Amino acid sequence: MAGHRVIERAVVAVLCVMLSASCAVGPQQAAASAPAPGIAWTSCDPPAAGLECGTLSVPLDWNRPDGERIDLAVLRHLASRPQERIGSMFLNPGGPGQSGVQVVRDGADGFDVWGGGRFDVIGWDPRGTNASSPVECFPTEQERAQFWDGVSIPSTTEQSQAYERRTVELARRCGEVSGNLLPHISTADTARDLDVLRQAVGDEKLTYVGLSYGTMIGQTYASMFPDRVRAMMLDGIIDPVRTTAGAEERTANDVAYADEVFGKFLELCAAAGPARCALAGHDEPVDQRAARVFAEAQRAPIPAPDADPPGELSHGDLLLSTFTPLRLPETWPQFAADLEAAANGDASALETAARQMSTPEAFAASTTSSAISCLDGPAQRPVADWPAVIDDLSGSSMLWGPVLGWWLWAPCASGWPAQSTDRYTGPWDATTENPILLVNARYDPATGYGNARAVEQRLGNAVLLTMDGYGHPSYQDPSACLEQARTRYLVDLATPPPGTVCAPDGVPFP
C-alpha cells in the first residue's frame, strides 16, 4: 500500500521507545495557556509542493511565561481536499526525540490519507530535539565523535565498567553544555507546547496522532486538558504509570515484550520452511540454531569478514542487530538469512547492522531520549548498581535488556544534572468528549500489547483496536481493515466496536 510505504520510510529511523512521584501536576493544576500568536508560514527549504514551514515561540519555563523563550520548528502539509477541510491533525512519531518535522516531510502523502485528505497534517520538533533547541552535550561534533568512538553495548565486565564511567562523564558534559534547558523538556512541558500550537493554528480542539512515545505525549495532554480533545489516535501504546514510576521500571517495561516477538519470529520461520526462511531445514530446530548463534557470540566474537571494515560481531553487537528487524516484519526473511550466515561462521551482515546502531549520531539520539525520560521518571538506583540492574533487565529481556539498560537507564542513574518540578505523574484516567482510539499490534516488541490493555482499562472512555500481527507501530504490518478504521475515526469520530480485531493483509514470510 503506497501510503504505508511512504510512512514506513519516514518512521523506520525510530531508535527506541523510551521513556517516585514528586511534584505531580494534576489536570486541575494545568494552567490555561495564554492566547498564542499565529504561525507565520513560509515555503520550506528546500521547497516542496503542499508543504509550509514555520516556528512558534514558547516559554522555556512554563512557570515563567514572560521569561526566556525558545522556538519550536513546525511543518505542515496542506489538506489535499481543502474544500472539505476539518482542521489540523498534529502528529508525533515517537522517540522520545524523533523529528516530527522530518517525518511529516517524508511521509506527508501517507499521513494525508490517514485523515482522508481533510486535515492539514502538522509535525513539530518537540523542545530539546532536532531544530527546537536541541539537547547538546558536546561543544562540537568532533568532540562528540571522539567521545563515542568505538563504543558499543558492553559484552564483558571490563567493558561494562568503562561504560559506567562514560555515562557519568556524559551526564557531567550534558549539564555543562545544556544545563539551562535540561529541566524544561519533560513530556508535560511538551504537552503545554502542543496546546499552544493548537491555538496557533486556530483549532478549538485538538486532533492528534501519537506513535510510540507520541502516545505518552497524547495521554499527558488528554490528562492535563481533557476538554480540549476532539480526536486522539494512539498507536504503539506507552504505559504512563510504569513510565513515570522510575527509570528502572520504565526500562523493564520497554524491553519486556521483545523476546516474545523473537520467539514468534522463530516459530513462523520454522513453519515457513527452508524455501521461505533460511534458518529452517537443518538437522537442529530453528530455535536451537538461533540460540547457538547467541551462545557462540557470548563465548567469543564471531568473524565478520565482509563488514566494512572487516571485524567481529560481539555479543553486545548481536543484541543491537536485533533492534530494527524485530520492529519490521517485512525484514524477517533477510534477518533470518543474516542469522543463518552467522550460524555458518560469517556475521558480516549482523555486524554491519549493529554498527549503524552505534554511531555517534545514534548515541546522541539515545542521549536525547534519556534527557526527556530521566525527567519523567528519574532513576531510583545509582549506576554503580549496574551489575544487579542489568541482570534484572536481562531477565526481562535477553535481547533488549542490556541494550536499553545501558542506553537509557544508565545515563539517568549517573547523576543526571536535571530534575523537573513540572513533570506529570497522573492521574491517567481522563474522559474526553469523544473516545480516544488506541491501536496496537498483538506482537509489538517495543510497546507490548499488555500496555494497550492496561491503558484501555485505565482511561475513561478509550477503545482498543487490535491488529493481530507484528511490528512497531501497527502499520508496519499493513492492514486494510485498520486503515479504514483509522480514517473513519479521525474524520467521522466513529470508533470501531469494543474488541475489534483487524487481520494483516500478508504474512511475515511470504
UniProtKB/TrEMBL annotation:
SUPFAM superfamilies: alpha/beta-Hydrolases (SSF53474). Keywords: Hydrolase, Signal. The keyword Transmembrane does not apply. Residues 90-244 form the AB hydrolase-1 domain. Residues 1-23 form the signal peptide. Pfam families: Abhydrolase_1 (PF00561), Abhydrolase_4 (PF08386). Belongs to the peptidase S33 family. This is Pimeloyl-ACP methyl ester carboxylesterase.
